Amino acid sequence: MAIPASKCHVGSWDCHPSLRADVDRECVWSQIFHDRRQAATRRYSTTLHESPKIDCLTFPPPFPMPIKAVFFDVGETLVDESRDWNEWADHLGVSRFSFHASLGAVIAHGQHHQRVFETVRPGVDFAALRRERELAGTIYSVTAHDLYPDAVPCLRLLREAGLIVGIAGNQPMEAEQALRSLGVPADIIASSASWGIEKPDIGFFERLIAETHGLDASEIAYVGDRLDNDVEPAQQAGLISVFLRRGPWALIQSSAARHTTPRYVIENLSSLPDLLRGL
Length: 279
Known about the structure:
12 helices; six-stranded parallel beta sheet; globular; 3 domains; alpha/beta; Rossmann fold; about 10% strand; 6 strands
């Protein structure tokens, strides 16, 4: 049933809060949920009629579950950061093997990733290094080739199933802008740079919850590759946290005794929809 005009005077996607801030937020998301679920149902029913052997991951019915929104971390969750780390090694004039080994040591000790630059070039200022790269014409960027192959299909599938899809991670503004320019299918794209707060600060996840304009924390899932920055703080904030076991942080931290075994673990984003359906 459509939402009464008296409660929402603008239709479906035109009501998106980033476009019409004066419209009641709860009504906006309700209309989006309704429109997407209706579209998903029609598409699913049509395909089911045409062929009884369908792939439910390709033609999903509306999600019969309490989850209404899914947020994703960026690095090693949606984006393969190998190219950027390799470019840092090249810029610093060290072998990629040595640089990656140093990064692994930093991860194993639970230190901030910027510590690797001090290891490779003692006494260096990271802000100064960034300026060096900018002057050299190798500023940080995210291209379509950097996205993991399962990233966009997963985001698109969840949106078509009627969920709010968000992207929010510890990233510079360049990453946020690049994801928007690429047209990545997401309702909300944000970063620690634009929010002014970084994970694992609980305030980051409180801001994330607020961006959904009315959803309870228990109705939101957060997917990330780090136990310290993603899974554990998201769970503390009341979200459903999903651990994506890929990338250096995931592999190293999952074998460290200081972290508890997460409840929900996936090896790739292709398996996320089925996990969410089973909650």
